[in-house]
Amino acid sequence: MTSLPADNRRYYPFYEKCIELGVPCSMHASANWTTCRPSDLGHPRHFDQVMCDLPELKLILSHAGYPWVLEACLLAWKHPNLYLELGAHRPRYFGVPGTGWEPSWQYGQTTIQDKILYGTGAFLIGRAPAELVGEMDALPIRDDVRESGCGITRRG
Questions:
Q1: I need a labelling partner for 20 at 20 to 30 A (CA). Which of 51, 75, 93, 126 fits?
Q2: What is the pTM of this model?
């Protein structure tokens, strides 16, 4: 909502403080559904330069760059400290052809299997957390990927 893309130098002191404190930074990386800001502000391409400049920053792209999922997956593959978070989307659509999630499904079980996080974001989509976790559990994720930490961690 700041009208500045993630690679704007005004953010760099914040990124540097995150590095100093050892705190991961999670930023919106997806289409913007408000009518007062352009969706391009959340395009994953804005994070590439940040990671080139600050490779030690642990950066999480919230919403996995949707609808630019392929670009987000390629950045996660390219940058060791860049991760994708799948929250605020219905897990039941992650494996459905034509939804745009195909790259995260393919690469999330191979080259970036340790770079995918899932948090329900239930409050954003008006679904019960248990319903969304059930949808995630129902996905045909390979056992070795699920066991290696594909982002499904139960709390509480």
A1: 75
A2: 0.90
Angle between helices 45-53 and 69-78 (to 10 degrees): 10
**144 vs 109: CA distance, rounded Å:** 9
Question: How many CB atoms are located within 10 Å of the residue 2 CB?
Answer: 10
Whole-angstrom CA distances from 103 to 23, 76, 87, 95, 96 are 28, 12, 16, 10, 11
Q: CATH second-level architecture of 9-147?
A: Alpha-Beta Barrel (3.20)
Residues in contact with 79: Cβ distance below 8 Å, sequence separation at least 6, in sequence order: 48, 51, 55, 59
- DSSP structure class, residue 82: E
Distances (CA, A) of 4 to 46, 65, 123: 10, 16, 25
Question: pLDDT of 5-47, one tens digit each?
Answer: 999 999 999 999 999 999 999 999 999 888 888 999 999 999 9
